Amino acid sequence: MPSFDIKSPFASNPVETRDDLARFLVDLLNPLAIHTSPGGARIHLGYTGTHFDETAAHLEGFSRPIWGLASLLAGGGRYDGVERWVKGFTNGTNPDHVEFWGDMRNKDQRMVECSAIGFSLAVAKEHLWDVLDANAQTHLEDWLGGMNDKEMPNTNWLWFRVFSNLGLSKVGSSKYDAKRLKADMDHLDTFYIGEGWSRDGPEGVVQLDYYSSSFAIQFAQLAYSKLAQKEDPERCEEYRNRARLFAQDFVRYFDPEGRAVPFGRSLTYRFAMSSFWGAVAFADLELPAPLTWGVVRGLQLRNIRWWVKQPGAYNIDGTLTIGYVYPNQAMTENYNSPGSPYWCCKSFVTLALPPDHPFWASPEEPYPTSLLNTVKSLYKPLHIASNLSGHTFILSSGQQCSYPVKNSAAKYGKFAYSSAFGYSVAVGNLLLHEVGADSVLALSDDGGETWKCRRETREARFEKGERDEWLRSMWYPWKDVEVETWLVPPTQEAPLWHLRVHRLRTGRPLQSAEGGFAIYGQQENDRALEPTDWFDEYGTNEQEGSVFAHSEAGVVGIVELRPNARRNRKGQAVRTDANTNLMVPRAVVPTLLEELEPKAEDDWFVTAVFGLPSQGDVEGGPSGWEVEWKKRPVIPEGIAKLLM
């Protein structure tokens, strides 16, 4: 790392108490003042573009912080800058004002921002509605109600109209449309697929990322269950039951340090990933053991605490950057404006709770010990979660985005996603180092100039052997190339390894590159990792059929388990282009390379992948990690028979 210590502007905040969390929110809201328009209705945070218009982008900057502001006010807190948002409501909804947001059209981005506004009216009416004069109230209700006769995407977006109507109902507006709200709710319930999980769309959509939880659906269901208990008690109780089931899976996406597993799109929303746990508290929902109030509090606050410490998540003035752990346009979507990251303000929902609420009154508890060193199949999202030996990650097969999204192959198609090592995205498609080929089998049919990775997965399913359970799927990078992949989780005997088996049949010559986890690619002196033969030194080690990389972030590696069958598979530590990995801007990916010729029979790869993150404040692989590296996972009998 650099010789000088770069810290987040909020790093001194321990985020342990309700007051700490409120202070963090205020410290996030204050820098927005100088970016706010004279009329208060627009917040302009940068010059990068989106697929929607600039006014809607400025509305994002205005509306998304309201998730936190409204929660703070609802819980009895004060914010001296609240007048900026009151003024913005007055002018942004006034058709005669220069800062008017514009009327909503079909599938308009403005609809997205209505969700936060509706929530704010529902929970902080006296602070944000009652203070408006009669004309301003009329303009605001007309503007919000203007979405009730418009077409919306058949996705989680429908929740945005639900919360608009919910907010209108709470302030007694005549623009509240009860029939529209019920129709939307009934349709949203068709997204439910059981075990607590909802997909982000109708039947045929196989997308169960953070939108199915904290970003949208689960959060919305729990907030609704609190705010509409009297009006819709049966549905509210159903949502609470779903959350009880869902929580037992969702806890597996978090590690003891507070990090969540990066997976899917919209990750620039950052600690919104944990807002489900805040919504559990907001809804006064007690969860099954071991998810006590102290555990829920810990899951929520540790995640926010981790993000508070990430300097690259913030600009020098304290505003949020676009990216993940550092500014990164390559991993974003074309709907990410400079104001988009403030979706994270959903995680301040616990500020709406009084100090004596069980969430705040219970001492914070660590990640449950009963859930550590375990492997669990998560059947609805087609994931297998593991946190054996301190590495929290998921194996994934079967998900894909139902519409075009930049780098969707990376966001949904990789074999593994790690809370410690993250994942990488492509910054180009010419040559391997641009592809960010961690946790993939990349294939090239033009001599390595361009590469394809798994994007659409077919026939994904779980299979059980005598002792093991694994994921099996098909994918077809070209019409004359088929790949069948088995993903096998770690075992207690080899806890730092997972197994991948690939059956390939190709009608064209191919080059293959299979990557392990990506890792921070620098030495202690901030220079690039160099080759080493010593386990206790930072560096890379390339062999025939294997390669590992050791840095202050831990150790990662990859090995071919059938060396006699795959004599030409060479190990190489690929230094990826800058800013491919979500966690670190300079990364190395241990990779196995081989060429394939077209033939009638199948080719097989049997690959073991090693991952050991640094633990807490202790950098690098722990002493003795080479013992684990020398172990090799056993191929399950049910798969081994296919190799004969």
From TrEMBL:
Protein name: Uncharacterized protein
Organism expressing this protein natively: Irpex rosettiformis
